[in-house]
Write a structure and sequence with these properties.
single chain, alpha/beta, Rossmann fold, Alpha-Beta Plaits, 3 domains, 5-stranded parallel β-sheet, 18 strands, 19% strand, elongated
Length: 456
Amino acid sequence: MTARILVVDDILANVRLLEAKLSAEYFEVVTAMNGVDALEAVQRAKPDIVLLDVMMPGIDGIEVCRRLKADPATQHIPVIMVTALDQLEDRVRGLEAGADDFLTKPVNDVALFCRIKSLVRLKMLSDELRARAESSQTMGLVVKAIPADSRPGNILVVDSRVAFIDRVRVALTGKHKVSAVIDPLEVIPSITESAAPYELVIVNLDAEQFDGLRLCSQLKSLEQARQIPILIVVAPDDEQRLMRALDMGVNDYLIRPIDRQELMARVNTQIRRARYAEQLRVSVQTSIEMAVTDALTGLYNRRYMETHLGHLVEHSINRGKPLSALAIDVDFFKPVNDTHGHDVGDKVLQELAGRIRENIRNVDMACRVGGEEFTIILPATELHLAQKIAERIRKSIAGKPFSAGPNGGSLNITVSVGLSTLIGANDKVEEFLKRADQALYIAKREGRNRVTHIAA
């Protein structure tokens, strides 16, 4: 794991020492010796992490951090503040300015590399999600800024000793909601059954009744808990278990005895990061849905159908499974728009799409491929079953009038349906769909409001 790290300190000896340590671990190092140069270096070098001294003349580290976090172009870059051991006030100020972590001088090598590797891992995930979200925005799919979120976090504390749980609860009371579990067997049920999702799990590795590392491993392997950050508490001399925990994906750690300010700071940082990542995931998922679905009806669009139909045909041929398609067209739809307006026409299409969804299976793929044209792909479906599904859809649409608006009364809508099935290993996607369209044209010529199939 490598990364580009910006080291900022006004003392040249400190810069050279950190540069040597990081370079020895194959990190790429960029340096700056004051706040102004640091801000310029961030824009120029695009670092993955900023290692920032608090005390500097002119623009100090706190102000540099505040400016970086206020800029949408740099707010995602992790900032580690470096403070003197007795500068508790600077830690609080730094975290209020948006710092992601902090280290105390003299910087411990284990702490330095643990913090950096943890933040690099998180930034790699964040960068991937941001890239996808930005691509979506470029295509006009999602244009939504991610707002700051100051809601109380939902935290689960795991330890066999009530005294530890109480100390954590007291330290976080008023800022976050804290739940606790003393039996490790209850942790997974607690996470999966919680009404509100947990945003952080705190695990004491020195719990007396269970193996904290094993619990962390289980949480990282469980799909429902994989994205929840884990903060562990370890003894000062327990470097071996600390490294193993970080290797398995634990997000952060605290060394006993716990400093309340540091606990609050690290909890706030993990929750903020988790929410940012979740909002990015939601943004990406929304953009994916917008890219493959029809905005009016919520059905899949033509692009999605054309992309995936080839795979479905190939799968059906390879497995010897049947595959059917329905081509559906609304009868006499133009007069609906001409007489009642396009708003009513849109509402008819939305309701019609809803009736289609109600009459197909979860495995079926319903798509809007044109104005009032729809295609439904029916995997593992033979001709006789496809005919039943087509008739069910036709009757559902014809059997109940559609609303024509508050003053327009109701409309009787019908559809014509063409049906085709896959006819062998040499069948092509284009021919498969063409036969459904041809059957649809026959249904139109023969009087509409019917299902027609062309024998292969």
